[in-house]
Amino acid sequence: MLRMLLRRLVLGAARVAIVSVIIFAGVELLPGDACTAFPEREAKGKLLENCREAQGLNRSAGERYFEWALGALQGDLGVSANGQRSISELIGDRLANSLLLAACVLVLGVPLAIFSMTIPEFVSATVLILVFSIWLGWLPGIVLTLAHAPASEFFPEILLPVLVLTMVMTAHILRMVRSSVIEVMAGDCVHMPTLKGVPYWRIVFRHALPNALLPAINVVALTIAWLLGGVVVIEVVFNYPGLGRMMIDTISDRDLPVVQAIAPIVATVYVGVNLSADLLTMVANPRLRTLHMRRK
């Protein structure tokens, strides 16, 4: 198992590196840069040359990427091209906000999913804003709290985003768990207790549900990674100052240092959560452990 873990870690690190290269190249191909992104700060002639020199944009793309990668490996994400602020400080506030949103959704969504068709989140978000903000006036429709504010100040502004994401996540996971339960209920692990006269509720909770949850582990892991990585659509709709909205804003600003810092963080979250799900599945399923030992 240790060998498998090391192999997965190496593959995960390689995936994060590839993502960082793709993101860097993608932003490089966009028209304009941090010095020409908006007309109000557009630079020309000598001013443009000085701006690009100050931002390091006059150097080759490869040189700038490898300089960033070397700093990132040492924990230095650099400074933002827009305002020259520390990227670690900028991302820290947004990441904390995304974690707050994800934690609230997970507390509500996972239990509901375990014990239809999914409506797209932008549709459910719009409907809930219309009903609870415009018609009833019970909850705010957008988040006005600043990114660096303490978590307690995001309530009740965070309630509608949490409700929308909970609906999306619950429908997705519930569908997977239901399909797994139906498949397991048709298997031998249920037929034998049924023939022996075991009560139905005990068959479901003692025999069917534990086996049915194993395939759902990866779905839950992907959902958690989706939440922790920043839910772009919801954060934009509700003006929520999370990591996903920050990525959109910095791409619009051509703020490559911040974009380049966010991408590996999101990729690392996905790789880490999926690795945890694989290990949890192996621990929970004796057959997978046996198969792994045979391969060794």
Tell me the total number of β-strands: 0
SSE string, helices as H and strands as E: HHHHHHHHHHHH
Low-confidence stretches: none
CATH superfamily: MetI-like
Largest sheet: none
| Fraction of residues in β-strands | under 5%
What is the share of helical residues?
A: over 70%
- Chain-averaged pLDDT: 76
CATH fold description: MetI-like fold
General form: flat
* Class from secondary-structure proportions: mainly alpha
Radius of gyration: 24 Å
Distance between the termini: 9 Å
Q: At CATH's second level, what is the architecture?
A: Orthogonal Bundle
Total helical elements: 12
- The figure for the number of domains is 1
At the first level of CATH, the class is Mainly Alpha
Write up this protein.
The model has no long low-confidence stretch (mean pLDDT 76). Helix 7 packs antiparallel against helix 8 (200-228) and helix 8 runs antiparallel to helix 11 (256-284). The termini are close together. The chain has helices at residues 2-29, 45-55, 61-73, 87-114, 121-135, 159-185, 188-195, 200-228, 232-237, 243-252, 256-284, 286-295. 72% of the residues lie in helices and 0% in strands. The chain has 296 residues and is mostly helical. The chain has one domain (2-44, 90-295): Orthogonal Bundle (MetI-like fold), CATH 1.10.3720.
